Amino acid sequence: MSLPHLILGNAVYSSWSMRPYLVLKRAGIEFTTEFVPLRTDEFRDYLPTVSPLGLVPVLKLGSDAIGDSLAISEWAAEEVSGLWPKDPVKRAQARMLAGQMHAGFMAIRSEMPMNLRRYAEPREELDDAVVADISKLCQAWGSALSKSGGPFLFGDWSIADAFYTPVATRFQSYDISLPPELQMYSERLLDQPEYLAWKAIADAEDWIIEDVDQNFF
Ligand SMILES: N[C@@H](CCC(=O)N[C@@H](CS)C(=O)NCC(=O)O)C(=O)O
Questions:
Q1: Ligand 1: residues whose CB is within 6 Å?
Q2: How many domains does the chain have?
Q3: Is 215 a member of any domain?
Q4: Mind listing the pLDDT tens digit for each residue in 5-14?
Q5: Which of 22, 131, 179, 210 ranks highest by number of CB atoms within 10 Å?
Q6: Which residues form the GST N-terminal domain (predicted)?
Q7: Does pLDDT of 216 surpass 70?
Q8: In a domain, 102, yes or no
Q9: Alpha carbon distances (Å) from 89 to 77, 82, 84, 157, 188
Q10: 184 and 101 part of one domain
């Protein structure tokens, strides 16, 4: 049987792609990768042939495909223990926070797109909806970290931390100031070997989506 094969979008912009990459790496699962540039004919022609949803990320397992960042992460957690907290309540809470990132924080996602080429460039003005999302997110991070004592949301690193790593890049890109303990957590996420491996791929990537790259509003 061939290795699991993870099909991904641009490392610079695709936050959904980054998440299962971090999880599979942390799990120590051996896998191959294939990056396909978003918003191109190549993507539009190819993805529907490999993914039931026509989106990245998609994990190919032989003739099967899992096409969603959280579903791929759940598959990894079935293969390898330790990706969710052991304690059932903490595990449910970690799933709650990962689920909230997967389904919510829409203003952060749309108004502060992930762009790993952007560094400490604040937006001129933050919409009220973005400010509200940041405040909700800080509350969620703060309460998990104060309960667990850190260093990660539920003590040991978990899938919930993978799901918030792209947010940490946005905080850095858009120079969002955070309370000191949340700033430390955010920086810690960006100091993990799995993220640094992803960042190295992004740094070597020369695909550009102009309206994201030039959107220095
Ligand atoms: N809920 C999905 C979202 C995946 C998603 O929206 N992927 C985007 C890229 S980051 C995509 O494939 N876009 C392609 C398109 O819109 O044509 C997940 O968690 O994987």
A1: 9, 14, 16-17, 38, 55-57, 68-70, 102
A2: 2
A3: no
A4: 999 999 999 9
A5: 22
A6: 4-84
A7: no
A8: yes
A9: 17, 15, 11, 16, 24
A10: yes
Q: Are residues 117 and 67 in the same domain?
A: no
pLDDT at 215: 64
3-state SS class at 126: coil
> Are 67 and 49 contained in the same domain?
yes
**Residue 205, in any domain of the structure:** no
Per-residue model confidence as pLDDT tens digits over 115-156: 999 999 998 889 999 999 999 999 999 999 999 999 999 999
Both 97 and 174 in a single domain? Answer: yes
The b/e string for 56-69 (b: 16+ C-beta within 10 A; e otherwise) is bbbbbeeeebbbbb
Do 53 and 107 fall within a single domain? no
Tell me the percentage of the chain whose pLDDT exceeds 70.
Answer: 99
Question: Looking at ligand 1, which atom is closest to the CA of residue 55?
Answer: 12
Of all residues in the chain, the percent with pLDDT exceeding 90 is: 93
